[in-house]
Amino acid sequence: MKRFFGFALLCTVLSFPAFASSNSQTVSIPSAVQVGSTQLPAGDYKVTWTGTGANAQVTLAGSGVQPVTVPAKVVEEKNNHTGVITNTTGNKNVLEVLLLSKVRLVL
After folding, report:
1. Mean pLDDT of 92-97
2. How confident is the model at residue 6 (pLDDT cuts 50, 70, 90)?
3. How many C-beta atoms surround the C-beta of residue 93 within 10 A?
4. Tens of pLDDT along 57-84?
5. Comparing C-alpha atoms, which of 43, 57, 47 is closest to residue 25?
6. pLDDT at 22
């Protein structure tokens, strides 16, 4: 019985990284964008999110850049490519949507 419990515990612990990676993906941002109150330079960013529906939090982390966390809405949908949708406000490109393989993150 102890052996079975130990095996079950080991399987559970080893599966946590698999669950964590399902809510992360890398996206390339081709030009500088405003995210919340932070200006992010062009580059590749690891996008992670927690929560579902309108109660999600999205974090963008890039090389040499402080991670930025903003509220978002998660819309589950299949996309054939990853990308971003921006809107120009004044003279700034504001990041509005992240298109990932299985979700759309509306910021």
Report:
1. 96
2. very low
3. 19
4. 999 999 999 999 999 999 999 999 999 9
5. 47
6. 76
Domain boundaries, the chain: 24-106
Using CB atoms within 10 A of its CB, is residue 95 exposed (0-12), middle (13-18) or buried (19+)?
Answer: buried
Rounded CA-CA distance 94/88 in Å is 6
Extract the tokens encoding 107: 């910021």
The pLDDT mean for the chain works out to 85
- What are the backbone dihedrals phi and psi of residue 53, each rounded to the nearest 5 degrees, phi first? 60, -140
User: What is the distance in angstroms between the CA of the first residue and the CA of the last residue of the chain?
Assistant: 49
Secondary structure of the chain as H, E, C letters? CHHHHHHHHHHHHHHHHHHHHCCEEEEEECCCEEECCEEECCEEEEEEEECCCCCEEEEEEECCEEEEEEEEEEEECCCCCCEEEEEEECCEEEEEEEECCCEEEEC
Q: Distance between CA 70 and CA 59 in Å, rounded?
A: 7
Q: Which two tokens stand for residue 62?
A: 């890039």
